Automatic annotation (TrEMBL), chains A, B:
Keyword Manganese appears in the UniProt entry: yes
The protein, known as: 3-isopropylmalate dehydrogenase
Physiological role: Catalyzes the oxidation of 3-carboxy-2-hydroxy-4-methylpentanoate (3-isopropylmalate) to 3-carboxy-4-methyl-2-oxopentanoate. The product decarboxylates to 4-methyl-2 oxopentanoate.
Annotated cofactor note: Binds 1 Mg(2+) or Mn(2+) ion per subunit.
Pathway: Amino-acid biosynthesis; L-leucine biosynthesis; L-leucine from 3-methyl-2-oxobutanoate: step 3/4
Family, similarity comment: Belongs to the isocitrate and isopropylmalate dehydrogenases family. LeuB type 1 subfamily.
Residues where Mg(2+) binds: 222, 246, 250
Amino acid sequence: MSHILILPGDGIGPEIVQEAVRVLRAAEQRFGLDISLDEAPVGGAAYDLHGDPLPESTLNKARAADAILFGSIGGPKWDTIERDKRPERGLLRLRSSLGLFANLRPAILFPQLADASSLKAEVVSGLDILIVRELTGGIYFGQPRGIREENGERVGFNTDVYSESEMRRIAKVAFELAGQRNNKVCSVDKANVLEVTELWKEVVTDAAKDYPNIELSHMYVDNAAMQLVRAPKQFDVIVTGNLFGDILSDEAAMLTGSIGMLPSASLDENRKGLYEPCHGSAPDIAGQGIANPLATIMSLAMLMRYSLERGDVADAIQAAVEQVLDQGLRTADIYTEGTRKVSTEEMGAAVAEAL
Amino acid sequence: MSHILILPGDGIGPEIVQEAVRVLRAAEQRFGLDISLDEAPVGGAAYDLHGDPLPESTLNKARAADAILFGSIGGPKWDTIERDKRPERGLLRLRSSLGLFANLRPAILFPQLADASSLKAEVVSGLDILIVRELTGGIYFGQPRGIREENGERVGFNTDVYSESEMRRIAKVAFELAGQRNNKVCSVDKANVLEVTELWKEVVTDAAKDYPNIELSHMYVDNAAMQLVRAPKQFDVIVTGNLFGDILSDEAAMLTGSIGMLPSASLDENRKGLYEPCHGSAPDIAGQGIANPLATIMSLAMLMRYSLERGDVADAIQAAVEQVLDQGLRTADIYTEGTRKVSTEEMGAAVAEAL
Ligand SMILES: CC(C)[C@H](C(=O)O)[C@@H](O)C(=O)O
Ligand SMILES: CC(C)[C@H](C(=O)O)[C@@H](O)C(=O)O
């Protein structure tokens, strides 16, 4: 029996997660899976209930689970509360507490949605990049950090820090994944300015020796931000630190024009993982039943593939999503003339049906 | 008499700077300017001559000058030398020693080159963004930094640090410049994770009180990287720290498709400045006479505008550049069928002639 914890979160989180659960139920039936589901509050919702965006009870359930399906968190309601209680902090603590150091963010262009991209068709058609972002280190978690007084004024400071072993383990994940794809890894750094990334470049280069079939290249982060716009198809797997990964994965996601379609996985050493859509909690459309559940449904597919080692189920979910797209079903965010606009629930039901 | 120091640097630097000087000579004649020119080595060229990418003699000349026209630096030849001697370090020390804290990077789409963009025409036509990047602080210069031993392994670390006064003075530059444009400033931070940028957001918000006509907005850096791809025309002036500015300005530059066309200015408190093209030293095409000198020529225009307070001369240079583009002259990097391919020198001569 596999234990999956559902963390709906805030904004559109509950609606989209509900549709992913619908698809999960359909997958259970079709494949005879043995799954137990539990649910817990996280983010602003948890703060409202327990005064904490990651209550102890939620963290305990997360520790016990084999995999976590996460909706989305945050909203203007919690933007002004004490820093440590904000929804984002709950997510950061969850990533860190569970050791979810490997963040996998695919940027894939669905041929059915090619028009949605702001880039020319020939630049992005067939785009399929995987960004591997280190998720539990770097400047996100580095100490010392804070705001201090100095010479009569305030000074803000943060520390970007990575150890060799942290660098090596994320590099390995990138090399392993590239081996299942097109055997190319581009490591992104700012080694010409930052010592921490100078070491990064050295360690990644050294780690590559165990992967003679992988072609490793290095790129400065400013150049990578340019190359993603100029010629994104030059990339297969990109591996980088927490902050650069945050920036570049969002940039890469937007190349597809449909961020509502992009899933992500955050894995620990044992492939236990947290799965969440790349998009945010979209408080402006929450509760209206118009959000796109497909990124969450495809996050479920990643969950099947990586944590439950059921690539067959993942493939079937992915195929079901493609099928409803081929049928012309679209939520509002990906709607174009000539297609059929459907609600969050209709979309979820259609994928479950196709499965 | 105005003193301008020429720092040709490496790669294509000398070729492109030579054409900018040709245009400067033409401007001198037409406008009766009184200018003294001097030249000094910098970057790899200076390392080869003096063992230092920023020799004392070059720095002294830079201090004495009213403005500096800079080519480009770096190349594979110097990639493996001792870290502190690399060409980039010379440039960083120059920025820091002269207090050039305000880096202005326009991203403008030339209608004549609209096809060069990898983005759809409607997304970028008429694009005109100004990125104001803080250039002498942040993680580029923060202490402590380095690589240390810890628990039997190496750990790399850097410090991102900004004082209130540093934040306030760059914010002011952005507000002033926005006042001469479309009165909009978007401040980019990662205030939901990094304390240093939380303070940034607060200080920029406070500084805005002196500029009631400017509309200030805030955006997280990951979202900014996305929005630049999705809908870049929503921006007027973007203000941000050193590292985010490095990344976002290169991304924005690439939206235009012709990085060979983009100039930049780095100003101190008194509008003394260093002017350089946004593109790099392109060692692969150096010495072939095919590099595009227009970014350097437009950097000269910025020099006229900001350091010499000769907006009229700047406008004339800019108009001359537009004129040769209208005539269909193109260097190899911006060549398309139906236009006339010219050399670096022919392009420089044509602009000088048009002036
Ligand atoms: C919400 C925020 C803390 C988070 C991050 O920066 O990691 C988000 O942008 C993401 O990429 O998952
Ligand atoms: C060469 C390098 C140190 C420099 C920087 O990072 O500032 C360059 O990328 C730039 O943007 O001018």
